Structure formats: structure tokens, C-alpha cells
UniProtKB/TrEMBL annotation:
Subcellular location(s) of the protein: Cell membrane
Source organism: Streptomyces desertarenae
Pfam families associated with the record: ABC_tran (PF00005)
Comp. bias intervals (Pro residues): 13-28
Record-linked InterPro entries: AAA+_ATPase, ABC_transporter-like_ATP-bd, ABC_transporter-like_CS, P-loop_NTPase, Siderophore_ABC-ATPase
Domain of life, source organism: Bacteria
Name this polypeptide is given: ABC transporter ATP-binding protein
Domain ABC transporter: from-to ranges: 36-272
Length: 301
């Protein structure tokens, strides 16, 4: 039985709410999108390199998971791909355009980033938070106008939070709040969606709920999705391609069935273990045994 919370909910008889705009027909994966290309990208801070010559091409419509130990550069790579940081070497291109040369709002019209965490603003409603995603399209003055546009209504409906539109965000559970933040990212109405550990701090049920929602939206909207995932099991199950980073470089790149191996566990994640296959879905299943020491443990943090 479908959880009623996943369907949203109608307004009360005394406070009718506008109906969500009818969804557009599902777009074929990749149609109308643009390739995201990371070419020789380096980035770091004084005395602390983070990324070291990363090359990566993500085709329109792909669903890619970035995995690796903390500090390997996953979140930094997402921020570079969102135009929030500028590389110290190389460049990040979207459809051939160098993101470092575009105005911030121009990039935000093409790439949406869901940060790992964000504090709730006291008193802000779900509707108001989702509308923040329209800044790039509507500008600061447009943000002051009351009412939702069709894009906001669709975003809330697609994630199943339309029934909570007038609830304070800080009254929601962690899983509910994450779905609202996902709606805010969708409200940017971009073809590229970047997610930085979207399941952080969520229990297993809500982790699966968020990831299944991302997979569904990617298919329905024809999105290109790149997400940082801390859990290799989730990455192997939900992504069609894994990119593993180690010490700021790409250590492995390919379909989960090819990339997830005992060697990856040892060399990239510092864990000795075994890899099997899910008997029904066929995706790789990891059986970690014990941690092992990596050469980087003493000099790269």
C-alpha cells in the first residue's frame, strides 16, 4: 500500500489550495540535455590539494554516483560542477560553456545543487522554502511576489509535499525536510541535478524513499543526476555508473557490476571485504570484513 505521505494531500475544506500544474509528458532520458565535462580539474587550499587533474564526462540523462572516503574531493567536485567554486586548473563545461565564465544566476538556471545540509529558517513554510529555488529564474524582486508559479507547484507535487505547503519546515521530520529541499532544487527547473549526500542523517526507510524518488524524477523529467553517496551499497543499487575518487583523482569509473570489486573496497575505501550479487536485482552487494591501512592515512586529510 502506498504511504499517504508520499502522495501529498489535499488542502482542508476551509483553506483550498491551488491544484498542481499537470506534469509534462516524461522526457526521454537525455533529450534536450547537455554534456557535463570536467577537464583536467584541479582545486585546493594552501598546503592542501583536494582535486588533482580530474577528467570526467557525464552524458545527458545519466545517473552517476560519486563514492570515496571523506576528504577525497567528492563534495568539492559537485560545487565546481555547480559553478560555486572555480578550478585552479582545468575547466568545467556544460554543453561546451565554461561555467567559470558564466554569471552565477546563469549557471543556476542550468544546474541545481542540493547541499548536504542546510539549517531550517524558523517560521519558514514549505511553500516559502520551495520558492527559494526560483531565485535564478525570477530574481530577488520576483521572490517577493506572493503565490507559487507552475514550476513550484509541480516540484512540490512531484516530491509529494504539496499537502504540507503551509506547514513550517522546522516542524518536519528529517526525511520530510529532505524531500522539501529536493523540491526546492527541482524548482530551479534545470536539466542537471547535483545531490550532495542526500541521505545523510536519514534512517534506512527514508534513505530508500529519497533515492527511489530521485530515480523516478530522473526518468520522468529526463534529468542528468550526479549524487555523492556515502553508502556504497546504495550507490551500487541505484546508480547506473559509479565514479570512485581517491586522493583527489578518479580511481575507478564504470557500471557498478564492473567497478565494485574487492580491489575497490581495499584501494579506495580502505576495507577488506567480499563482493557478491543480489539474487533478484543483480546489483553488487558488499560484505566488508575489516579496515585496512591506506598509504594516504598518514599524509592526506
Amino acid at each position: 500500500m502506498t504511504d499517504p505521505a508520499l502522495r501529498g494531500g489535499p488542502g482542508t475544506p476551509h483553506t483550498p489550495r491551488p491544484r498542481p500544474a499537470p506534469p509534462s509528458p516524461p522526457a526521454p532520458l537525455g533529450e534536450g540535455g547537455a554534456e557535463l565535462a570536467v577537464e583536467g580539474v584541479g582545486f585546493g587550499y594552501p598546503g592542501r590539494p583536494v582535486l588533482r587533474g580530474v577528467d570526467l564526462r557525464i552524458a545527458p540523462g545519466e545517473l552517476v554516483a560519486l563514492v570515496g572516503l571523506n576528504g577525497c574531493g567528492k563534495s568539492t567536485l559537485l560545487r565546481l560542477a555547480a559553478g560555486l567554486l572555480r578550478p585552479s586548473a582545468g575547466r568545467v563545461l556544460l554543453g561546451g560553456d565554461d561555467l567559470a565564465r558564466l554569471p552565477r544566476r546563469a549557471v543556476a538556471r542550468r544546474v541545481a545543487l542540493l547541499h548536504q545540509s542546510a539549517p531550517a529558517v524558523p517560521g519558514m513554510t514549505v511553500r516559502q522554502l520551495v520558492r527559494q529555488g526560483r531565485y535564478a529564474a525570477r530574481g530577488p524582486l520576483g521572490m517577493l511576489r506572493e503565490g507559487d508559479d507552475a514550476v513550484c507547484r509541480r516540484a512540490m507535487a512531484d516530491v509529494g509535499v504539496a499537502g504540507w505547503a503551509d506547514r513550517p519546515v522546522d516542524s518536519l521530520s528529517g526525511g520530510e525536510r529532505q524531500r522539501v529541499r529536493l523540491a526546492m532544487a527541482l524548482a530551479q527547473d534545470t536539466r542537471v541535478l547535483l545531490l550532495d549526500e542526500p541521505t545523510t542523517y536519514l534512517d534506512l526507510r527514508h534513505q530508500l524513499e529519497v533515492l527511489r524518488t530521485v530515480v523516478r524524477l530522473r526518468a520522468e523529467r529526463g534529468l542528468t543526476v550526479v549524487m555523492v553517496l556515502h553508502d556504497l551499497a546504495h550507490a551500487a543499487r541505484f546508480a547506473e555508473r559509479l565514479v570512485a575518487l581517491r586522493e583527489g583523482r578518479v580511481a575507478a569509473d564504470g557500471p557498478p557490476a564492473e567497478v565494485v570489486t574487492p580491489g575497490l573496497l581495499a584501494d579506495v575505501l580502505g576495507v577488506a571485504g567480499r563482493v557478491g550479487r543480489d539474487p533478484e536485482g543483480g546489483w553488487p552487494v558488499c560484505y566488508p570484513d575489516h579496515p585496512i591501512t591506506l598509504e594516504s592515512d598518514n599524509h592526506f586529510h
